């Protein structure tokens, strides 16, 4: 059974930092592209960042580029999202995603709240 478990969310003031983690079990982690998405209240879930398993190439959504950094530790089956210079508009539930040519998997989400 595949499980993705996010952690590291919380309440932070604008300009602060948080580091999210997503621990994966039940899959061959090194063969999955790993990503982060977020969903603000009343809005649809949106892409934040992705790191590809084969190349290590990283992609970011425009609103977070230059402030967020995605990384992965294949030995620990974990993907991270370092979030710096946080803004109130970053407030959302952040979800971890594992993607391949087969099924995609999602975590349960972790809340990030940025106060102004």
SSE layout:
Layout: E1 3-7, E2 10-13, E3 18-25, E4 33-39, E5 46-51, E6 58-60, E7 68-73, E8 78-83, E9 92-99, E10 105-106, E11 110-115
Parallel strand pairs: 2-11
Antiparallel strand pairs: 1-3, 3-8, 4-5, 4-9, 5-6, 7-8, 9-10, 9-11
Describe the structure.
Strand 5 and strand 6 form a beta hairpin. With 116 residues, this protein is mainly β. The strands form two sheets. Strands 2, 4, 5, 6, 9, 10 and 11 form a seven-stranded mixed β-sheet that branches. Helices cover 0% and strands 53% of the residues. It is globular.
Number of strands: 11
The run of helices and strands is EEEEEEEEEEE
Shape: globular
Could you report the average pLDDT, rounded to the nearest whole number? Answer: 96
Percent helix? under 10%
Instruction: Give the biggest beta sheet.
Output: 7 strands, mixed
Beta content comes to: over 45%
Structural class comes to mainly beta
Q: What ranges have pLDDT less than 50 throughout 5 or more consecutive residues?
A: none
Number of helices, where a helix is a run of at least 4 consecutive DSSP H or I residues: 0
Distance between the termini: 40 Å
Specify Rg, calculated over alpha carbons: 13 Å
How would you concisely characterize the structure shown here?
This protein is an all-beta fold and 116 residues long. The chain has strands spanning 3-7, 10-13, 18-25, 33-39, 46-51, 58-60, 68-73, 78-83, 92-99, 105-106, 110-115. The chain contains no helices and 11 strands.
């Amino acid at each position: 059974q595949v499980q993705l478990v996010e952690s590291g969310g919380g309440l932070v003031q604008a300009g602060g930092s948080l580091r999210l983690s997503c621990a994966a079990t039940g899959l061959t982690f090194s063969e999955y592209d790993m990503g982060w998405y977020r969903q603000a209240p009343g809005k649809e879930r949106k892409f934040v960042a992705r790191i590809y398993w084969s190349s290590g190439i990283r992609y970011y959504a425009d609103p977070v580029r230059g402030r967020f950094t995605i990384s992965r530790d294949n030995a620990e089956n974990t993907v991270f999202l370092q979030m710096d210079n946080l803004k109130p508009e970053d407030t959302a539930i952040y979800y971890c995603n594992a993607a391949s040519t087969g099924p995609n998997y999602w975590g349960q989400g972790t809340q990030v709240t940025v106060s102004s």
